[in-house]
Structure formats: C-alpha cells, structure tokens
Design a protein that fits this description.
Strand order of the largest sheet: 4-3-2-1-14-15
Protein name: 2,3-cyclic-nucleotide 2-phosphodiesterase
Number of strands: 31
Largest sheet: 6 strands, mixed
Number of helices: 14
Radius of gyration: 23 Å
CATH class of the largest domain: Alpha Beta
Catalytic activity: a ribonucleoside 3'-phosphate + H2O = a ribonucleoside + phosphate; a nucleoside 2',3'-cyclic phosphate + H2O = a nucleoside 3'-phosphate + H(+)
CATH superfamily of the largest domain: Metallo-dependent phosphatases
GO cellular component, one term: outer membrane-bounded periplasmic space
Shape: globular
InterPro entries: 5'-Nucleotdase_C, 5'-Nucleotdase_C_sf, 5'-Nucleotdase_CS, 5_nucleotidase/apyrase, Calcineurin-like_PHP, CpdB_N, Metallo-depent_PP-like
Distance between the termini: 59 Å
Pfam families: 5_nucleotid_C (PF02872), Metallophos (PF00149)
Length: 516
C-alpha cells in the first residue's frame, strides 16, 4: 500500500491567483490552484491524507477585509473548506487578529485543527493535539505542532492566557505515545529548519523558532510536514521525508510512503518527498465560487481613493530605496510618529514587491505595500540600545568582491529577511559598510546632539520589533511604555484622511556608504 500526504502551508489567505496589484490576474499560485493539484493527485494515488499546515488566516487583502473591514472570517474560510482537507494546524499568523477571531474562524472550518503545544489552563487551547486517521486498514497518527516563538512577536492582548510549550519537547512527549496507537506517525509542524539539511550545521541563531532538523532526530516520526519559512524544500533528512511548499500556494507538498504488512503491523519500506508546482493548474471552481462575493467586494474596496501625491513616492528599485531614503519610507515613519506621539520611528521595506505610491493613492496601494497587520508600540530605549539596533540593521549590507554595496547573504538565504533591515526617522545617522560589523554607525545624532549611551529615547516601531522579533535583543516587552492597537493599514488610511495631499519628499536623514 502507498500512503500519499499532500500539504499546503503559508497560503496566507491567497485563495485566488492574484497579488491584488491589479484586477483580473491569473498568477502562478493560490489555494484555488492547489485544490486542483490535490484533486489531480487524489485521482491517481492509492490512499491520500491532506493537510493545511498553518498561516492561512492572515496575509492577503481578502484576509484583511474579512478580519477588519467587514469582520466575518467565513468570507475567507469558505475557500479553505472548499478544498476538502482532512485536517489543519495553526501558524503564528493565525494569532494576528486575536484568539477570539481565531476561534470564530476555526468554528467555520469543516476539518479539525490540531495543536498539541499551545495550551490554556494546561489543556490544548485550539482543537485536539492529534488525530487518528484510517486509510486502507492502516492507522495514521497525525500530531499538530506550532512554532512556540509566537510570544516574541505577538501582542500580548492576542495571546493572553496561552502557554506555548516548546515544539521539540511536545514531540518528544507525544510521539512515543502515538507510536503505541498507530502504524504511521506524521508530524505537521508550522515551523522550519534551523540547520543545513545536509551538513546539520546551524543556519540561524538556535532560538527555538525553528526546530525542524531536531524533529527529524526524534525516534518514531515517519513523515514531517513543515512551513513558516516560505522555503521550497523536499527530501529525506535523517531518514525522515520532509516537505516545505513555499508561499501562497505555489506548490503542494507531497510525501509518498510505501507500507508493507508485517507480523508486528505495517512498516514503511520506501519513502519519497517532492513538491508539485501549482502554477500551470487552473483555479478550482469550487474554491473560486466559495469566495466570489467577498472577492468582488474586496476589489471594489481596494480601488477606493484615499489621497494623492504631488511629488514622487514610487519605488523603482527596492535595494536603492533601502540605501537612499525613499519618500514612501519616510511617509510610513511619519504615520507611526503621528499615531504614537513620538518623534523617532523605525520601519522596514518588508519585501521587494512594494512599489510605493503613484499620483493617486488607493487602498490597493496601501495593502500591497504594507503587507502585515502590525500594530504599533512605543519602546523606551537607552542610547546604547538605539545604537545597537542600528548596528544590527546595518548588518543587512555587505561589500561585493569588487567593493560595491550589496546585501549580506544571511538576509537572503535560507529565506529573504528584508523586513529585518529598519530605517529610522527623527534621528540622523550614517552607516559605513566598509567598517566592521558592530562598528558601522559612524555618526548618530538626535535634534543635532550626539546620542548618548545613558540617555533615554522613545521610539515607535511595530509590535513585532518591539517584542524583539528578528532577534533584536535590545528590544523586549518590558521596554514598551504604550501601544496603539489600531492596525497600521487603518492608521495609514486615517493619516491620509487628515493629510489627503502628500508632498512625496524625503529629508535623507540617513546615509549609507559606500554610495551606490
């Protein structure tokens, strides 16, 4: 007998094949296309288990619309119920809109959610820890795990009362018990790999955010489904077949296990892992029909005008916008300062897809540039902390072999981390990339005076950074002195209502050397 495990992960609410940059797109990803691939595999495979592996509730404009504009998660979850999953798990972004909204969303799904390591009062807070599934006379135990690093990123109001057990510890506890109950044990983990899959060498700081490699070393796991990092991975690691299918439904993860009956039960005698691209597949009618009404409303909402620009706020080159301050980045920092009553702010250009604002600013421009549902926090930092944060951001840059300015490889591999390079407003500073890491901030002033190590400074940042997200250890929740609980998309719209005409200029308060 052959068991095929199919998975999606990190679809982020991209039910339809569009990135919402414009109407009527047919791009090579989406939940709807993944559904078609899943159905095609089901038609030819022996026995199939389908898994949604987390980060499905947040990310797309449709997801935002369902959570914030006309709150009703069914507008989004209808697309997921149309896929026909056997089970699902939680990702870290499921908590972005709070536990109450998450519970409401889960109640609208037609498949169970598994989560063994997020507890409330000592019991699983969301669904069951595991599920036993029968396929062709074989009992399959599926364990659901979520990265336990969520408290480092998420606002406390969204995770109040929850306990996050380390995923590795939960696996070591549960897997032996599941082996006694089932012929096959599958672990579905919304987390990624902390080590090189071939050499086992660490590829990041071993904080516990990602423990996929360590999970492959837990005895008794027959297959491991992963996500979180948006990487495209498939193979056999330490004898365990693993997949990670990328982002927005670009692939479906496929693990094939050949099972042979023995006197002691079924035994895995062959294993294989691969990714099945979805780009060439048509979008499944069942999924597109399920979200047709809210999808049409979202497109109209996205085209609603909010303001206009008299100068130039477009981004033509994302790297250049990180080297020479873009008017768009200065605008985001101005919004953050206005919303928090501060005069220092830091933000990032999160990815390379944003294009800034044209002459007319619509909601489409806002949500396709500012892609995360961040709220804001004000952190009280010492001058030493502020300089340390700038030094860590400055690690984004590296010199190429011929001495030109480039990006440090660790911000590109194993996954892009452009969101961990912050640009600040309200201070003046210089980054000299010719200097050693940790000594690159060669000038730093506030209101014309040098920033001193012992002085305190109030700084507005998103809640991800305020909690130390991105391994910025000079930030933590103890330094937060106040918060603004409005979503940044809403704050941007509010700002544009008060300032409907933007000048589209930047004051170039920071410089990066050597110049491009």
């Amino acid at each position: 007998m052959k068991l095929t495990i199919l998975s999606t992960s990190d679809t982020h609410g991209y039910v339809l094949p569009t990135d919402y940059m414009r109407r009527d797109q047919d791009l090579p990803f989406s939940l709807a296309k993944a559904k078609t691939v899943i159905d095609q595999v089901k038609a030819t495979a022996d026995e199939v288990l389908t898994v949604e592996n987390g980060d499905w509730l947040q990310g797309s404009p449709l997801a935002y619309y369902a959570a914030r504009v006309h709150p009703d998660p069914a507008q989004l979850t209808a697309g997921y119920t149309a896929v026909g999953y056997d089970l699902g798990i939680l990702g870290n972004h499921e908590f972005n809109y709070g536990s109450e909204y998450l519970q409401q969303a889960i109640s609208g799904l037609n498949y169970p959610i598994l989560c063994a390591n997020i507890l409330r009062a000592g019991q699983p807070a969301f669904g069951r820890p595991y599920e036993l599934v029968k396929r062709g006379g074989v009992t399959i135990a599926v364990l659901g795990l979520t990265t336990d690093y969520i408290p480092h990123w998420e606002g406390q109001q969204n995770i109040a009362g929850l306990t996050f057990v380390p995923a590795l510890a939960a696996a070591k506890d549960w897997v032996p018990r599941l082996r006694a109950l089932a012929d096959v044990v599958v672990v579905c983990y919304h987390g990624g790999f902390e080590r090189d899959l071939i050499t086992g060498e660490p590829t990041e700081a071993l904080t516990g955010e990602n423990v996929g490699y360590a999970l492959t070393q837990v005895p008794g796991i027959d297959a491991l489904v992963t996500g979180h990092q948006h990487r495209e991975l498939a193979g056999v690691v330490n004898g365990v077949p693993v997949t990670q299918p990328g982002y927005r439904g670009t692939n479906v993860g496929r693990i094939d296990l050949t099972l042979t009956p023995t006197l002691a039960g079924w035994q895995v005698t062959a294993k294989h892992a691969t990714l099945v691209p979805t780009g060439a597949a048509p979008a499944a009618d069942a999924v597109t029909a399920a979200v047709a009404d809210p999808a049409a409303k979202v497109e109209d909402w996205l085209d609603s005008p909010l303001g206009r620009v008299t100068g130039d706020m477009t981004i033509h080159d994302a790297f250049a916008a990180r080297v020479v301050e873009s008017p768009y980045i200065e605008f985001i920092n101005r919004v953050q300062m206005a919303a928090t009553g501060t005069d220092i702010s830091g933000t990032a250009l999160f990815n390379n897809d944003g294009r800034g604002f044209g002459q007319v600013i619509t909601m489409r421009d806002v949500v396709t540039n500012y892609i995360y549902p961040n709220t804001l926090a004000v952190v009280r930092l010492s001058g030493a902390d502020l300089k340390a944060a700038l030094e860590q951001s400055a690690e984004y840059f590296a010199l190429t072999a011929d001495g030109h300015l480039g990006i440090s490889p660790r911000f590109l591999d194993p996954k892009p981390q452009h969101y961990n390079y912050d640009m600040y407003e309200g201070i003046d500073y210089q980054i000299d990339v010719t200097q050693p890491v940790g000594q690159r901030i060669t000038a730093l002033t506030y209101h014309g005076q040098p920033v001193t190590a012992a002085q305190s400074y109030d700084v507005a940042v998103n809640q991800y950074r305020a909690g130390g997200g991105g391994d910025f250890r000079m930030f933590d929740h103890s330094k937060i002195i106040r918060e603004n609980q409005k979503d940044m998309t809403e704050l941007i719209a509010d700002y544009l209502q008060a300032h409907p005409v933007l000048p589209g200029m930047a004051n170039h308060n920071f410089t990066v050397l050597p110049k491009m």
